[in-house]
Design brief:
This protein is 40% helix and 9% strand. The chain is α/β, with parallel strands linked by helices. It binds zinc ion. Zinc ion binds next to helix 8.
Length: 301
């Protein structure tokens, strides 16, 4: 059996704040009703769209689509005005060359798409709002709520546009993990987006899939599975960019860096990443090390 399907990790979907299993069933039934199935893994040689953010999850995900499923992969990278753009882009370019060399027929150069989100006109306000809810239970669950939907709507639309080149795309891949805590990273959201794709394209054969959390494939696993896969398949995942900060190297102590380090521990794989800070004892917030970040920026300019 495939190494990536029917795999469950420690986290149960029923225990997750950002999942609603009743709603998920309701959404899945809509798709089943419309097309006879919820989602299916595309067949060998089919063309698909996949997000490439420069982070470990999206990088490993693309490797898996190429190696384990022999799919023609058309990645997209969103320039959304992120503060770590330069570092993400560097990682994206690195893995673009890497996969192009390894899978010259199946891998296609990524498309960079500029879609600024959140809108620059209200980003500061949104940040303030985010801080206001930071100490309640929902702290990170809402995050930038439109970011996920906007990024993947753009990806879907790019896939649709490829029809003009004779490339038939019907599936878009994200790489959300069982530990992702935002509502716009959940299986419930993935299914809702899938319905949205179908409705606005008036084509019920479109699919939106996040392999690690796809319930139809019996999955609900975390980063350790991807890290282990990359290790076994010699994909140099440590060159991916996880950190949301603007430091030249991974800070090692923001929420995304923390999850990355935890992933290596759980996978039992040696982490070759160079980090700026040691891991704090308790789970960090996005606002830690802001002083150091400002200082470094000032020193650079
Ligand atoms: Zn970091």
């Amino acid at each position: 059996m495939n190494k990536i399907l029917y795999k469950k990790g420690k986290i149960d979907i029923k225990d997750k704040v950002n999942e609603d299993v009743n709603l998920l069933k309701f959404y899945s039934d809509i798709l089943k009703n419309k097309r006879g199935y919820v989602v299916k893994m595309p067949k060998k040689g089919e063309s698909v769209i996949a997000c490439l953010s420069g982070g470990q999850d999206s990088v490993a995900n693309i490797g898996i689509l190429l190696k384990e499923f022999s799919l023609n992969v058309y990645p997209f990278f969103i320039n959304r005005g992120q503060s770590n753009y330069k570092h993400e882009k560097k990682a994206v370019d690195y893995f673009n060359r890497f996969y192009k060399k390894k899978f010259p027929k199946l891998y296609h150069n990524y498309k960079e798409i500029t879609v600024i989100t959140p809108g620059a006109e209200y980003k500061d306000l949104l940040r303030k709002t985010k801080r206001m809810v930071d100490d309640i239970q929902l702290r990170h669950n809402v995050s930038y709520p439109a970011r996920g939907p906007i990024v993947f709507l753009a990806g879907m639309e790019y896939g649709y546009s490829l029809k003009a080149k004779g490339i038939k795309i019907k599936t878009v891949f994200a790489s959300n993990m069982s530990s992702d805590f935002s509502y716009h990273c959940s299986q419930t959201w993935v299914r809702l987006m899938n319905i949205l794709f179908c409705q606005i394209l008036n084509d019920w054969s479109w699919q939106f899939i996040s392999l690690p959390i796809e319930t139809e494939f019996g999955n609900h696993f975390d980063k350790d599975v991807f890290i282990k896969w990359a290790h076994d398949n010699e994909v140099p995942l440590y060159k991916a960019r996880t950190c949301v900060k603007s430091f030249d190297i991974e800070c090692g102590d923001c929420p995304t860096c923390w999850d990355r380090r935890r992933g290596y521990k759980e996978a039992g794989v040696k982490d070759k990443t160079k980090y700026k800070f040691p891991m704090s004892e308790k789970y960090p917030t996005y606002y830690d090390h802001e002083k150091e970040e400002k200082n470094e920026k000032r020193n650079r300019s």
